[in-house]
Each structure stands twice: as C-alpha cells, then as structure tokens.
Amino acid sequence: MPSPEERPAPSHAEGPALSQVEGPAPSLVRGLRLGELGLLGTGGLLALAFHFTLPSKLPDEADYRRAGEEIASAAQPGDAVLLHPWWTERARLFVPESVEVAGYLGSEQDPLTAHPRIWLISQRRLPRAATSDFERAFSPGRAKLGETKRFGTIELTLYRNDRHRPVLFSAAGGLASARVYIDGPGGRADCSFDGRSHRCPNGVSAATEIHEVVFRPHRCVYLRPPGGDARTVVELPGVRVGEKLALEGGLVWDRPSWKGPNITPLRLGVEDASTGRTLLQATAPVGLEQPVHAEAPAAGLPQTATLRLWVQSDSAEARETCVELVSYGPPPALAQGNPGASP
Amino acid sequence: MSPRTDRALAWGLFAAAFLSLWATQSSVGFVRDESVYFAAGESYARWYRTLLSEPSLALTDRAIVAAFDFNHEHPALLKSLFGLSYLIFHEGLGLLRPAAALRLPAFAIAALIAPLLYLMGLRLFGRTAGLFAAASFFLVPRQFFNSHLACFDMPVAALWLLTVYTFFRAQEEHRYWIWCGLSFGLALSAKHNALFLPFVLGPFALHRAYLRSRESPAARAAVNRMVALFAAVAALYGVLYFALGPTQFQQRFLLLSPHTALYLALCTVAAVLLRQLWKASPAAFRAASPLVAMVALGPPVFYAFWPYLWHAPVERTAFWLAFHATHHHYTWFYLGKLLRAPPFPLEYVVVKTALTVPTSLFIPMAIGFISVLARGGLAILPRTRAWVRPIGWAELLVVVNAVVSIAIISHPEVPHFGGVKHWFPSMPFLSLLAGHSVARASESLRGLWARLEKLPRWAPAAALSGLLGLPALIALVRVHPYGTSYYSELAGGLPGAASLGMQRQFWSNNVTGVLDWLNRNAPMGARVYLHEVNGFSFRDYQRNGMLRSDLVAAGGPADAQLAAYQYHQEFKEHEFNIWQAFGTRRPVAGLYVDETPQVVVYRRP
Questions:
Q1: Does residue B469 lie within any of the structural domains?
Q2: Which residues 494-553 in chain B show a CB within 8 A of chain A?
Q3: Sign of torsion, CA B104 B106 B107 B111?
Q4: Residue B494 falls within a domain, yes or no?
Q5: Residues sharing a CB contact under 8 Å with residue A58, sequence separation 6 or more, in sequence order
Q6: Using alpha carbons only, what angle is made at residue B306 by residues B25 and B417, rounded to the nearest 5 degrees?
Q7: How many helices (H) and strands (E) does chain B have?
Q8: Do B576 and A217 touch (CB under 8 A)?
Q9: What is the predicted ipTM?
C-alpha cells in the first residue's frame, strides 16, 4: 500500500473556496456554507425519519392471515381480490385459492368483468402507494359494500363491481368441444384432440393455458398461426350468445416487442360459422406492446351459435398467441330489472 | 496527525473493510455470472497446478485453450486469483468453504478502495473528507453487496481508483509513475472498462507536462515530440487499419510485423524522450511519465496475466474487444417500462444512481460535485473570477473520473442492464466529492459550535458524518444480503421503487432467502426448479451446504415438484408457466423484502 505523505495540503485548508476578500459579501459565503450544512443535516434527518417510520407502514404475517380469514369467511363464488399497490403479492399466500387475485402492473385498470364483487386489499401507507391515482382508475363503476376493515396496515374493503357482466361462454372453457383445423389455400387440415391439446400439422397446436399478455395473466386459448395465408381456426359449437362478444388477448410474453424481417402483423378474428360473417376482427401490428381487444354487440345471432375464432400471420415466427373469446350477458341489475341492486 | 498515524489509519480502513466483507459473506448468494467465474477460476487454477508439475505440457496452446477457453470473454487475472485461493484455502488447507475461498481475493481487492479513498481524500480535501469517503463508499448497500462477489465490477473500480491514485501521486513523487503503469495493466486485466483510462488520464498528463515545461525550452521540445510521437503512431495504426482492412489488419499483426514494430518504436522513442525530459525538467517528467508507463507496461501486464493470449494474442484480444463492443442487451425494468433495446433513456444512469445511493450520501455527493463545477464556472467568467479560488487540477481529476464511467454508460446505445455495477468506477470519486462537502460542512458546524469549547475538534465532523452515515447503515443492515434489491429513501425504499416500476433484483442471488424453506420442506430427492439459477449456482449452493444435496435441479416447471420464481418484470411469463404446470396460482412461501416480492415458491399439489 502506498505510504501517505504530508503534502499536498488539503485544498479546503488553503482557504475558502469562495474568496472572502474580493468576492461576494462574507454574508453570502456564510449563507452558502450554512445552506450546505442545512441541506446535509436535513437530508440526514429526513433519511433517518424514513427508516424509523418505514416498519410501521409494513404489515406483518398476522395481519395478512386475518385479512385472508376474513375473505375466506365471506367470499362468494366469482369474487376476486384486487391488490393496491399492484405489486403487494405477498397476499397471495393468504387469500383462499378459490378467489382469483389480480395484482399486476396496470391491474387497477382491469374491469374484472367476470367478477361481481371485488375485495380490495389496500396498503395505502406504503411509500409511493399513489392511492389517489389508484382510486381514480378503480372507483368508477364500483360501489362499496360495507365498512373497511383494518388488519394492521392492511385495509380490506368489499366492493360491488358494476363493470361486471356474466360470462355466458368462453373459448378457453369450451375448447375441449371445439374443432380445430388449419385452413389454407390448399384446403383444410384437421387437428386431433389428445384430451388437453389440439394437435395440428407443422407443430401448430391449441390448448387452454395461462400466459402473460403484457404483464397480465390470461387463461386463454394458446395457439399460433401456421404462417402464410393459412389460418388456425378454432370452431366453437354451442356458444351461448348474450349481449356482446369480446375478443381479448394478444401475443404472449416478449413477443410483441420482437422486430425483424420475419416478424409480421398478427390478425385475429371471429366469424359466424353459419353465415361466414365476420363478427370481430383485430390486428396486432409489429412492435405494439399492448393487448388486443375488440368487442361488438351480438345482435343478429341466434341464442346458440357456432363461432369460428381464427389467427393468421404471414410469418409464424414469434407469433404465439393467447386469445380469449367471451360472450357476455347483460348487466345483472338490468337482467333483474332492478338497477342499482346489490348482487 | 503524523504520516505514521495516517498510514495506520489507512491500514485500519483496509482491515475494517476486509473484515466486514468477510464477516457478512456467508449469506450472500451467487449471482448468475459469479458461479460461472467460480468454475472458470477452478479450471484456470488446475492449469497453474499443471504448470508447476508439467510446465512443458501446460505451456502448449492445446493445454492453455483446454483450461482457459471457458469464459474467455473476460481476462483471466481475477478468475486465476479466485481459483488459486480456492486451491490453497479450500482444497489445500481445508480452511474455508469453497465460496469463501473463491471470494477471498475479491474481498481484498475491494477493501483496497477504503485506504485509497482515505489517502486521496486526505491529500485533496482533508482528513474528514478522506475518512468520510472511505466509510461512506461501503455504506452504499449495492456497493457493499457487490464487494462480496468474485466478479469484476468492484475489482475494476478498485484498480481504476488505484491507477488514478498512483497517477495523482506520480505528479509529485518519482517512484509512482511505474506503479501507475502497472496498476493500469492490472485494471486492464480485470475488465475492459479500463480501456478508457488512458483517454481519461492522457489529457491531464500532457497538459500538465506542457505547463511544467514552460520554463525549459528543452523540456518543452521533448513534450512536443512526445505528443507528436503519440499522434504519429496513432495515425500510422490508422493507415494500417484502413489500408489492410479489419481482417488483414488482425491477421498480419504478428510478432514480426509493422504493427509490433510500431508499438516497440513507440515505447523506445517514448523512453528516450522521457530521459530527455527528466534531464530538462523533473517536474515535466513526473507529469508525462505515468502516461508513458501506462502505454508501455499496460499491454504487457495484460498479456502476461492472460495465458489464453500467449499463442494467439491478436486474434483472441480482437474477440474480447468485439464481444464487448457488440454485447447483447438484457431486458431491464425502469420507471414502469421494460427497456429491451436501444436507444435507452439518456438520464437513466443519473436517475438510477439517485435512487440507489442512500439519500443522505447522495446529497453530499451532489453538493460536492456541483460546488466544484460551480467554482470552475465562476473562475472562467471575468466578472466572477476574483470571487473564487480556481479549481485545482486534482479536483478536476476527481470530477472527470466521477463523470466518465457514468457518461459512457449513459450513451443510449450502450447496454443498460446490471443495475449500477457498470459505472462503479465513478463511485469512489463521487464518494470523494461527498467527503469534500462533508468536510466543508463540518467546518461550518464547528463555527456554530465555537462556544462549546470543551468539545473535541473532531466532534462536529463525527456528528455530521454519523447523521449522514446512520441511515445508510440502517438500510444496509436491513437489506443485506439482498443488496441488488436496495433502493434509497428518495425512491421510497424498496416499496417505493416497486411502485415506481424499478427492477427488483439482479440476478438470482436472492434465492438464498428461500433455501432454508426448501431444505425444511422439500421431499427427499425432490426435483426443484430454481428459476434463473444456473446449473453452476445450483451446484455451488449444494457444495457450500446451503441447499440439501439430495435435491435435484429441474430444467423447468414441467418436471419439477417445487419451483422458486425470481421476480423479474420481464419474466412474468415464467411465473405463469409455473401456475400452468402446477395447476395452482397460490404460492407456499416466498422472500418478501420490505413487502416487495423477490422470490416466490410454488409447490405442485
């Protein structure tokens, strides 16, 4: 190790950085020095305060356990839990398995359409919880059912979800009874169902699986296009038709971000098998990192219909798709002829 | 205080840093690349053993390639040290567990930062500044964490600092110029960041040599010739490159070639000019000699410590350079967005630094930096020139070194993954600037306390340093051993950073937080999928007694009974694959640091 020597003298020992002889008034120099000291002292004190107060903003396991027990005791089929902030997923350890938990980047925007009631687990005291932003996104179309219960720093509130629509049919749920085939210029090639997955030529398959579409977990029909003009078609018989049809999903994981000469737009559509009429259509352009969404009133369709869900892309590279076709019924209150009624 | 006391203090700081790393190492997990370097180190060490027993066999290219081909995208010096330490302290003496033995050299190199900062701070800004810089550097949780690892980022920061320190000392004392050249060679042998050092120090050397030769025409002539020599050699290499083309330039770079002749001519003529300079002006010699030493000694040291280059230096060095010039990009989560490919946000590095250095340490860094810049600015303007003492060259040296690594990584096309480790070489210099600010503020505090005459002189500095250091120490203790997850008070800690949408961890070492649970709950011989933990790390956890040896690594959730998912925003699909394979979305355990999910464990029902 180099041995220290006595020179050169420290620069601040040679005199003040701001001259007190020819320069600004000594009071300014003194002010700047005290300002520096004040900033450092204040910074240190605020940082200390942060660390002394942080533990009181964090829940402990017992808080979670009691909140989980509360949900378990009062949950109804179809209930969901929403997390605020979105990343507080430790709650998953304590929420009953039968209750779906929504906690992903952007989940405050999720209409949670399939769920009539929402349990909100909120930790508003966490740093940067941005509760007002959350409430702006979450509150419209939600009505509080009862008082907020507090378990340590956890706040648990039950809401009625007025954005809820009953699900009459979902492609992911009905895939086992579907007919899947490749529909190309050379004709139609049927796929065989092995009890879990429809196996098609050229490695194409269709199965109900859970995948990520822009951070959100989707239980969906997982499939990919065969490439070229051909389409992968999922023909769904016995679709109960309600108020509207919705196509939701998109490319999985990082696939939306892929770019290159072999990456081509993904087209998705839904058509009425009896007439061939296109009911829904959407395109996922190359590089667009957003889920696909299309919906339309189901007017003109019989109460039970056979629908074709299809995907196509000129190149099949990195076009793994997670898509869900849902038939929604009318809002519950309207269905009961009693607007504003609680479920 | 006497120089002897300062020397003792410097050694004390080294010992304190080393011991604190040693005392806290056992819980630090293995980041993905560290286990690769462990394996490489062991391979290199085996070669050194062969070198002792069968030197003629070991020195063949075949034997060298067999040992050193693994991980040949990084120089071998540090990995060789890791491996030799393993050979001695684990295999030979049986004193240490494998990981501790492999990491031992890393602790020693990182610990060098403390005395170097103290000694440099002492000379530049005073004792308070030096002590604060040395202590505060290791109070930054991410720096403390990385100092444990048998990797290259902290060692190259230490060796960069050593090179700058020896350069700084060489300006006043003759013997340091050789050390500067050797330090540069060691830095180059640690990581490619060091390639930028000559471009940082060269302008200082030449400018100071120019100024110091003012009084001596002979010295000035030698300096001018030296500048012309460097320019001419650079131009001739340029001509060769463009005339031959990249491939031929590389292929014709042989022992007996114009390329080698140019380098030898550069070293020889520079040595002659240095001799002339020494005779004409020792002061100008001291300014220029470190640069010549870097040019003359750096490449040979680099070559000597990397046996892989011995039989094919140019081709293999070219691969090394090309690998890093075209490094691929890892996805990175930043302010709610996944950064996948360039261009990256220009402000990324500054924002990330502000959010990952404890705020009580970041504030003095910022003030120290801004105050030096402000003085520089005021000194330029005619109207305000008289107000300030001009900034010295050494202060400018600190500022430039504080900025340069940050500026390089800030370029929107440069890979941005890895958290903060890629600009570690800037951080010691920012610590020095923080020390500068704290020393000045301590003087102000002493002025306020002047009435309390009974207080010792060091009390204000100690009180202020304690106030600034304590929050960082609390944070460090709280987050250890998950240092790459740390976020500052400005970010709102880990919870605030999670809400801001920042990367949670980098990379895979936090799995240690669930290993105890797995050891207690996994069935005998269970297949366990440790997401993002590579095979080397799995082996290392087992051979270091951190994971039961009967557990078997599974390649994915499909063939696993238990899975531990590392929370990365870019890998959410991997977690959902576990849900799909296991048929459950409910975890059974997890590592949640200040509430933020880091590692989530699932069990197949």
A1: no
A2: 495-496, 498-501
A3: positive
A4: no
A5: A126, A153, B495, B594, B595
A6: 55
A7: 25, 7
A8: yes
A9: 0.94
Which whole-number Å values give the CA distances from A67 to A62, A79, A85, A147, A152, in the listed order? 9, 15, 16, 14, 10
Which residues of chain B fall short of a pLDDT of 70?
none
Which CA distances in Å does B454 have to A117, B48, B444? 69, 61, 17
Residue A337 has pLDDT above 80, yes or no: no
| Residues spanned by the domain of B44 | 3-324
Range of weakest confidence among A34-38, A199-203, A224-228, A326-330: A199-203
pLDDT of residue A27: 82
Cis check: omega of the bond before A237, within 30 degrees of 0: no
Taking contacts as CB-CB distances below 8 angstroms, the residues of chain B near A14 are 389
Distance from CA of A205 to the nearest CA of B (A): 16
Radius of gyration of chain A (CA): 29
Residue B496 in contact with residue B487, Cβ under 8 Å?
A: yes
B399/chain A closest Cα distance in angstroms: 14
B270-280: per-residue pLDDT in tens? 999 999 999 99
Structure tokens belonging to residue A318? 């990195």
Q: What is the CATH number of domain A167-328?
A: 2.60.120
Give the pLDDT score at A18.
52
Q: Is B525 helix (H, G, I), strand (E, B) or coil?
A: coil
Give the separation between CA B399 and CA B413, rounded to whole angstroms.
Answer: 24
pLDDT band at A23 (very low <50, low <70, confident <90, very high): low
For residue B336, tell me if it sits in a domain.
no
Residue B384 lies in a domain: no
Decide: B153 and B106 in contact? Cβ < 8 Å: no
Among B324, B345, B378, the domain-final residue is B324
Question: pLDDT tens-digit profile of A76-96?
Answer: 999 999 999 999 999 999 999
Instruction: List, for residues B397-425, the tens digit of each pLDDT value.
Output: 999 999 999 999 999 999 888 789 999 99
Alpha carbon B27 to chain centroid, angstroms: 21
Tokens coding B356: 């990952």
DSSP B77-112: HHHHHHHHHIIIIIIIS--S-HHHHHHHHHHHHHHT
Residue in B257, B297, B278, B1 with CA at minimum distance from that of residue B122: B1
Residue A165 pLDDT exceeds 90: yes
Residue A268 contacts residue A313 (beta carbons within 8 Å)? no
A339 falls in which pLDDT band (50, 70, 90)? very low
Residue A212: list chain B partners with CB under 8 A: 572-573, 576
- DSSP class per residue in A273-328: TTT--EEEEEEE-TT--S-EEEEEE-TTS-SEEEEEEEEE-S--TT--EEEEEEEE
Domain boundary among B295, B324, B353: B324
- Contact across the interface for B437 and A40, Cβ inside 8 Å: yes
Alpha helices in B174-216 (DSSP H): 176-190, 197-212
User: What pLDDT shows up at residue A333?
Assistant: 67
Domain boundaries along the sequence of chain A: 61-161, 167-328
Return d(Cα B449, Cα B459) in angstroms, integer.
10
Q: Which pLDDT score, from 0 to 100, does residue A6 have?
A: 34
Contacts for B293 with CB less than 8 Å, ≥ 6 apart: B177, B178, B180, B181, B182, B184
Does any CB of chain A come closer than 8 Å to the CB of residue B410?
A: no
The reply to whether A65 touches chain B by the CB within 8 Å rule is no
Quote the percentage of chain B above a pLDDT of 70: 100
Tokens of residue B246, six digits: 């990249």
- Return phi, psi of residue A25, to 5°: -55, 145
Q: Which pLDDT value is given to residue A24? A: 66
Max intra-chain CA distance, chain A: 95
Question: Residue B500: closest CA among chain A residues belongs to which residue?
Answer: A128
Coil, strand or helix: which one is B193? helix
